[in-house]
Known about the structure:
Elements: H1 2-32, H2 38-42, H3 49-72, H4 135-164, E1 168-169, E2 175-177, H5 185-201, H6 203-212, H7 215-230, H8 233-239, H9 241-255, H10 258-269, H11 275-303, H12 308-327, H13 340-350, H14 365-369, H15 372-403, H16 407-437, H17 443-467, H18 471-488, H19 495-499, H20 504-529, H21 536-564, H22 605-613
Amino acid sequence: TSGGERGSSGTRREAGMSGMTGMQAGMEAAFNSAQLDDQTAHQECPEDVKGALMFKLRSGISSVSGNANRVFRREGAYDRYDLKDANEGVDKTVENDLTEMDLTNPEEFPELDRPPLRKIDKYCQPECPCCNISKRYTQAILVMIGFTISFGIRCNVGVATVIMTSNKTNSEGEVTEISEFHWSPETIGYVDASFFWGYIITQLPGGFLASKFPANRLFGTAIFLSSCLNLLIPAASLAGSQAVIIVRVFQGLVEGVTYPSCHGIWRWWAPPLERSRLATLALAGSYGGAVLGMPISGYLAEGIDWYAPFYFYGCAGIVWYMFWLWLSFEKPATHPSISPREQLYIEKSLGDSKAKQPTISSTPWSKVVSSLPVWAIIVANFARSWTFYLLLITQPKYFKEVFGMSVAKGSTLAAIPHLIMTIIVPLGGQLADYLRRNEIMTTTNVRKLFNCGGFGGEALFLIVVGMTRDKLTAVIALIIAVGCSGFAISGFNVNHLDIAPRYASILMGISNGVGTLSGMICPITTEQITKNHSTKEEIESEWQTVFLIASGIHFFGVIFYAIFASGEIQDWAKADPTEENVEMDIEKPTNGYGANLNVDTSANEAAEAETMLQPASQASANPFTSGQTSNPFRQ
């Protein structure tokens, strides 16, 4: 009996192992040959609970499977809404070599030898399974969220210091608890400005680092390290203001590379006629960060304690970094699941994606420094940064001192102008690209119209903010002023990619470095102007001076940019014709594969002949795994 039991037990184990093997084989087959079940996709949902649950489960699996089939199989890989002809990505309003070329997509696309799959790609493909968003817009959304966290971190100190240094009072205005920290206005000004002492140092080096190393890795690492440092600020505050200043300087050092590396990302991912919309979508996170950062920091500081915002944003940045490592890639050629047609569209519209990257010695410094279009961008960046950091850092203080608002309410009102700007910035990018794509205006005129119109409107309404003594009027004027400046982002902040795409990250480092002077000077200047709190009238007069100075700086930026800005690529920024080449060269046969930075396509004729004489192996239907011997999907 025992022997029979052992035998039956062994049989059951073998059957179980066989069943597991069969299940695993079935799952692999389903993954590699997944197809959307039309009957499941179109039938009506049953009314009973069990049937409805099973129907939704099957529908969800079918949706994910259909997306996997689109990504990892050839069928339907080109039938995407984002798959455009490369001619659509070329800016025809400016003179360049691409306007004379035929960039129409070929009838048959080359197969691509994909970069080696990472371990995570074996289980979870690098894209959202529930939507077919293009890979370039995936990069833009990730950058936007990264900037949202980055600028939320910058809001923490401005809001928290108000709680840290304010006495707690009751409803009758009597002091019930002395403030925990006794920092002078000058000390608070130095704490606010210390971030920019480090931030300005790494601007220019950040441009070169974004040229030498993968810009996406540089951007992600900067946000991650800044988030980790943010977790240290509460402990540093207890040690003294000097410790906070040191941590803030290090935060500035690591975040100084974010803007240059952002332009380094668009150097590879943004077709010319999509630069405005992609860049503004990403940069909208800067203002979205202020929208969320001010009220979140205010309510966390008042509801929990002053240290809560630092912990919240520190953890948020670390979580974001995990998604960034999974979904972000340096360029289209290194993305394991980009559609061949999207890669072809991006690379052919860019035209010089294989040009040598600039170095310190190869950069034409004398021509860069003497270029008036470069100076136009620098002046505009300084003017915009002055008002941006004025509102980002001191707006809650303005509402508290002039109108007697609480920190939480003042932070919420301070966030409203940035909310409007978060909406207007990407809309302005769409409008700017529409005018360029339909050749209604030249790129130069589009940049000048958006920049000067936005700055002019902001300067006028900043005067209103300074002169009014009515709370509602001040809030409305601030909303309109900041909203106007949202259009300017489609002017100067994208202009680097127009005049010198090869040097865009370096120019961004230069212009943003000069603009960062605003972040260093503005808080200290504001604290010095508003430090006398003797009477209500004097406080109002001091803040009036602050806003009139900001308005004057903007008017100067309008005049300078209108005269000297340009949307044409500069002669000194053009690549040597011998360097220009696209990474997917459809004109040159490469053993069935398109050219790719990760693949050597320069094999000699003898090697090619030897390959042709070998027996043909069975072709794979998967353009991402064919030709790969070490691919886990082939094992």
